[in-house]
Amino acid sequence: MVDDSDINREVAQRILSGEGAQVSVATDGRNALEWLAAHPGEVDLVLMDLQMPEMDGLEATRKLRGMAGLEALPVVALTAGVFREQQDAALAVGMAGFIPKPFDVDAAIRLICDLTASQPQAAALKLAESPSAEPIAPQASWPGLSVEKGLEFWGDAASYARYLRLFASEYAGVMDKLVEAPAAEASSIAHKLKGSAAFLALDDVSFCADQIEAAARAGENISADLSHLGDALTTALDSIIGYGRSIAVILVAEDDPVLSELIAERLTMLGYTAETAADGRQALEIWRAGHVSLLLTDMNLPEMNGLDLARAIRNEEAPGQHLPIVMFSGNNRADVQPLAEEAGVDLCLNKPVPAAELERVLSTLLQDQT
Q1: For residue 63, what are the contacts with CB-CB under 8 A and spacing of at least 6?
Q2: Residues 343 and 314 sit within 8 Å (Cβ to Cβ)
Q3: Which of 27, 140, 224, 227 is deepest in the core (most CB within 10 A)?
Q4: Are 54 and 31 in contact (CB under 8 A)?
């Protein structure tokens, strides 16, 4: 799988691995050729994006055909919409077919099976048709974000939300880049944006990016299209924040029932889901259920204090896991900080915590999980 987009590689890897394939990835054409030279005979097929930095898919395929043992290796163009001239150029360098982004999973698997002879297939190879770029109606609660469609690709809400946050970070400055870019570069930027947005079910963004790519390729003025994309991006980014908060479960470990309810209400007002625990042991059992996104804990809890709760979680976390833990304390933060760091607490806050600071802390720590 050769693609310069982290999001596109992750989607393809998840889908194809789920269908039983062993998937290796490369970030551009040059990287792919180096990998293939170092791993002769280890792949049955290459999915190659057409537009990449360093070396595009056409040049990579042309060079691949001159490498010993790779003359007949099937190479399939993986792209967010294929213009006729790109199809002709791809076939001319020896590509065997096309898979549009986002995947029609069944069609992609059939084509891969055809080309690798993994199962008997009688039908002749045909170019896969790219789906319509027209946006579909999103869920009313998250304008510009079709959650049900996105979850069909990603499978679970946590992974989907994580890559939505990655998209928001990766394309935060894309409008400035498009405004300043010459036509060819603008077309390339829009192409990449279109593919990533499509995989994440950001349909309006994908549609607007498609319009910019086509207009820039044709040498047309893209000012109006840029305005539409800016509006679509603003709407989508707001929905990404809202959706991420809606699925983030924050556990509040606080033995004062009035304060616990106050914190939970504040979290609900910010768009998060809150669960509460009255002591450290209860909080640990809730965390063990596996659905908690972040822990807010008082330091002085009955049964098990906040420091021991943090230590227990860190000792039980699987490799690669890290629950963000924020600890409240009525003591001087400088006195508590060394103990908290030793226990694995991410951040200490003095009581009372201003609402604006709490919102900033939660947003930062949950964003860091990307």
Answers
A1: 29, 33, 55
A2: yes
A3: 27
A4: yes
Q: How many distinct structural domains can be found in the chain?
A: 3
Rounded Cα–Cα distance for residues 287 and 174 (Å): 38
Residues 98 and 193 in one domain: no
| Coil/strand/helix, residue 21 | coil
- pLDDT for 193-231, tens place per residue? 998 899 899 999 999 999 999 999 899 999 999 999 999
Among 244, 269, 291, residue at a domain's last position: 244
Alpha carbon distance, N-terminus to C-terminus of the chain: 22
- Position 136 pLDDT exceeds 90: no
User: Helices 223-247 and 157-170 sit at what angle, rounded to 10 degrees?
Assistant: 140
pTM: 0.67
The half-sphere exposure of 330 on its side-chain side, counting CA atoms within 13 A, is 3
Amino acid 128 reads A
Say if CB 147 and CB 243 are below 8 A apart.
yes
Residues sharing a CB contact under 8 Å with residue 148, sequence separation 6 or more, in sequence order: 139
Spatial separation of the C-alpha atoms in residues 262 and 145, rounded to whole Å = 31
pLDDT value for 295: 96
The proportion of the chain whose per-residue pLDDT surpasses 70, expressed as a percent, equals 91
Please check whether residues 269 and 216 belong to one and the same domain. no
pLDDT at 370 over 70: no
157-188: pLDDT as tens digits:
877 888 898 898 889 899 999 999 999 899 98
Q: Regarding beta strands 97-100 and 46-49, do their DSSP bridges make them parallel or antiparallel, or are they unpaired?
A: unpaired
pLDDT tens sequence across 27-41: 999 999 999 999 988
Task: Note down the domain range covering 24.
Answer: 6-116
Rounded distance, CA 162 to CA 97, Å? 32
Q: What is the DSSP letter of 319?
A: T
Nearest-Å Rg of the Cα atoms of the chain is 25
Residues 6 or more apart from 173 whose CB is under 8 A from it? none
Tokens (6 digits) for 369: 């999980």
The tokens describing 234, both together, are 């603003």
Which is more confident, 333 or 63?
63
